[in-house]
Amino acid sequence: MYQILHKEKLGPDIYLYRFQAPDIARYRKPGQFVIVRINENGERIPITIADVDTEESSITLIVQAVGKTTLQMAQMKKGDSIPTLTGPLGEPTHIEKVGRVLCVGGGIGIAPLYPVAGAMKDIGNHVTTILGARSANLIILADLMRESSDELIITTDDGTEGQKGLVTDAIRNLVDNGEKFDQCIAMGPPIMMKFVCILTEKLGIPTIVSLNPIMVDGTGMCGCCRVTVGDEVKFACIDGPEFDGHKVDFDELMARLATYRAEEKEALDLYSSEVGCRLDGTLEGGSR
Amino acid sequence: MNVKERLKIPPVDMPEQDPEERVKNLDEVPLGYTPEMAMLEAKRCIQCKTAFCVEGCPVGIDIPGFIKLIEIGDFKGAVRKMKERNLLPAVCGRVCPQEEQCQLFCSIGKVRKDPCKSVMIGKLERFIADWEREQGEFEQPPSVKPSGRRVAVIGAGPAGLTVAGDLIKFGHEVIVFEALHKAGGVLVYGIPEFRLPKKIVQYEVDYLEKIGVEFRYDHVIGKTIPVRKIVDDFDAVFIGTGAGLPRFMRVEGENLLGVLSANEYLTRANLMKAYDFPEADTPIVKGKKVITVGGGNVAMDCARTALRMGAERSLIVYRRAEEQMPARLEEIHHAREEGVEFHLLQNPVRLLGNEKGWVSGAELIKMELGEPDSSGRRRPVPIEGSEFIEDTDALIVAIGNSPNPLVPNCFPDLEVTRWGGIVVNEITGQTSVPGVFAGGDIVLGAATVILAMGHGRRAARAMNLYLSSGRWVDLDKALDLCRVEVH
Questions:
Q1: How far apart are CA B413 and CA B431, in angstroms?
Q2: Test mutation, B249, B250, B255, B273, chain A, max A CBs within 10 A
Q3: ipTM score
Q4: Contact B224 A83 (CB under 8 A)
Q5: How many CB pairs (< 8 A) connect A and B?
Q6: I want to staple B370 with a disulfide (CB 3.0 to 4.6 A). Which of A214, A252, B381, B435 is the partner?
Q7: Do A89 and B220 touch (CB under 8 A)?
Q8: Is residue B248 within 8 Å of residue A223, measured between CB atoms?
């Protein structure tokens, strides 16, 4: 069993959890993920590791409650345990001194970007980070990201914090002002990564993306997470989760993510009606 | 009773659930022998002086010996006799292809000129294993002096479980590392409940735990703990990580929604209990009409699972003819009884999707049989211009698996073949790395449970000798000498 050592609300429906996981904490590298299963009837879902505390032997996961499993997680408390936490899975990010690095994080994708930006800066790159979300309260880890970057830019769709607009607007502004980048790393919703990649391809900036397809085992066994990269089919769990963003078929990825949308809604509705909680993470009833 | 009288007894059929009923549930199809049935079936064995059946068994069970004990009603003795050679009889009695192994060599089958009329060795094996489990008694094996040696087993599938069970009995400390949250490997994620109830696998795993084997779940060796650390921390290592890398057809449309590998389909249905959705959280693709591509046991498992998941029509599409199907006759027979449709000598050339990206059909091409290929089977050749569209709501790709590359990829010193199998000494299971052994599907590619167990058994014997003597070079020759001394 893997115990929750700390839980904290970062924004609406967004929670930070620190799980006790000595082996994972010891061997994980930036870019890797874990498979989580929260109870005996639970599904196996992949979550990219946001941080690690080797002293506490814990890993940090930041999860947005969007479906039954993540909502159930949101109901858990410090001291509770989950039966499965497997990892660290996938290939770590290739950390290399390339010069000027542009990190682009959207929404919950800021969480896995955090260790990557830090590692890129530590090795001597100049790191410019752009964080984007719909609104100010959805921007997470801004202070930590500021420490891990040489420059931090925040964009919100509604202008409640930083520049009003999309992350792609911010990239364009930087480049228009004469900034040059040797490498871009984008992590966030697939639609954001898609448009970042369209832009950076035009601008000639090599771009790495971290993909989050549906997975079951996470060890290459089921093939559920297959993605088209160039003219090859790759398994995100063992070949990824990071790929050359200019070669990824994002439309296929987004379609495949919707495979079980009807079932996900059914499970969520049933769960919500049973425990009487809404999707802003607050309990209405008192069943737990 | 003399041989003549024994020969007169017809094979005792095992009662089965009615096909129309059983597709509505997940319960096991064959219901098992009663003690009377088993004792009658056991009478059919004529106790040949040279037991050819034993030679057909990959783990060398004393078949006439355990059958004789059943005949006289000493079921406990029969269990003991069985467990000398096979730790997982409840599993093997159900999933071994006996008609290609022990029962193929049975004298009764030869006399009757039909291996299906052989002594029902597999059914008897299943009977005594079930009998023991139902007694609820647990026999502790004789205690042995701890050797002080530690062994790591990577992968809790049939090969790994066999190694663990054998080495603990030699007095070694055994830790099994399993990537998933349950032990059993393909026995729990792949083979469906209606063919192998999961409580049976759990019982066998519980038994190993009771006799001292330690299981560590959620451990992906190479990731959770580096392979090098395992090699350094243990006196010997066995890799049994299986053939868990699904092959796809590489045709257009294969990434459409509703197209999935047999591994994914069966894992969702079995290990993740998708049949219980939304009670269990894992969903599964359901279709009114489901196509399964392939002709092996796994394809039969998928097609039969689809019926239980509510499909109105479940089709097997296979590129060769029925005679070339690798599936066991019993599985084909059960599938057909349940209403699975066999579309033979057809092969998908591309998959079609609807506007939402879901698979809506498969373009199939008709095939004919040409000259024999390297496998000895006649090669299927496409008939030009014979393409047609078969509508479908879901398509399962069950055309085989390759060795899972995860451990070999994390282990640069380990020698692998061109197709990813670990290279081993066939007698000992020794790999290119001293102290490291391997066996089962990670060596063989996708094969059978019993062959994996046979590998495990041989590796365990060699590992024991290695652990006690420290000898690595010419271990196979040393093993041969031991055998001579024993006999």
A1: 10
A2: B255
A3: 0.91
A4: no
A5: 118
A6: B381
A7: yes
A8: yes
Distance from CA of A177 to the nearest CA of B (A): 41
For chain A, how far is it from start to end, CA to CA, in angstroms? 20
Nearest to B224 among A24, A42, A68 (CB): A24
Q: Which residue of A has its CA nearest to B409?
A: A238
What's the pLDDT at B215? Answer: 97
The answer to whether residue B302 neighbours chain A at the CB level (below 8 Å) is: no
Greatest CA span in chain B, whole angstroms?
71
Could you give the angle at which helices B297-308 and B262-269 cross, rounded to 10 degrees? 50
Instruction: Say if the Cβ atoms of B404 and A37 lie within 8 Å.
Output: no
Phi first, then psi: what are they for B227, rounded to 5°? -55, -40
A230 at interface of B, judged by CB pairs closer than 8 A:
no
Q: Tokens for B286?
A: 């359901």
A126 touches chain B (CB under 8 A): no
Residue from A41, A46, A2 nearest A224 by CA: A46
CA B292, CA B398: separation in Å to the nearest integer? 7
Cα distance between residue B44 and residue B118, in whole Å = 9
CB contact burial B155-179 (16+ within 10 A = b; e otherwise): bbbbbbbbbbbbbbbbbbbbbbbbb
Q: Give residues with Cβ within 8 angstroms of B365, minimum separation 6.
A: B346, B347, B348, B349, B382, B383, B386, B387
Q: Smallest CA–CA separation between B219 and chain A, in Å?
A: 6
**Measured at the alpha carbon of residue B247, what is the angle toward residues B242 and B252, in degrees to the nearest 5?**
165
- What amino acid is encoded at B321 in this protein? A
On the CB side of B46, CA atoms within 13 Å amount to: 19
Average pLDDT (B173-179) is: 97
> HSE-up of B351 (CA within 13 Å, CB side)?
28
Per-residue pLDDT tens over the stretch B29-39: 999 999 999 99
In the block, which residue shows the tokens 């690095």? A101
B349 three-state secondary structure: strand
Interface test mutation site (partner A, options B218, B225, B354, B441, max chain A beta carbons within 10 A)? B218
Which residue of chain B has the CA closest to A232? B250
Mean pLDDT within B234-251: 94
pLDDT at B483: 53
- A77, A49 contact by CB (below 8 A): no
Angle between helices B121-135 and B63-71 (to 10 degrees): 60
- Chain A hits for B223, CB-CB cut-off 8 Å, are 27, 32, 87-89
pTM: 0.91
Q: Which two tokens stand for residue B86?
A: 């096979």
Number of helical H runs and strand E runs in chain A:
9, 17
Q: Residue A47 and residue A89: Cα distance in Å, rounded?
A: 10
Task: Output the six-digit token pair for B232.
Answer: 């350094």
Contact A259 B258 (CB under 8 A): yes
Cis check for the bond before B403: say yes or no (omega within 30 of 0). Answer: no
- pLDDT-above-70 percentage for chain A: 96
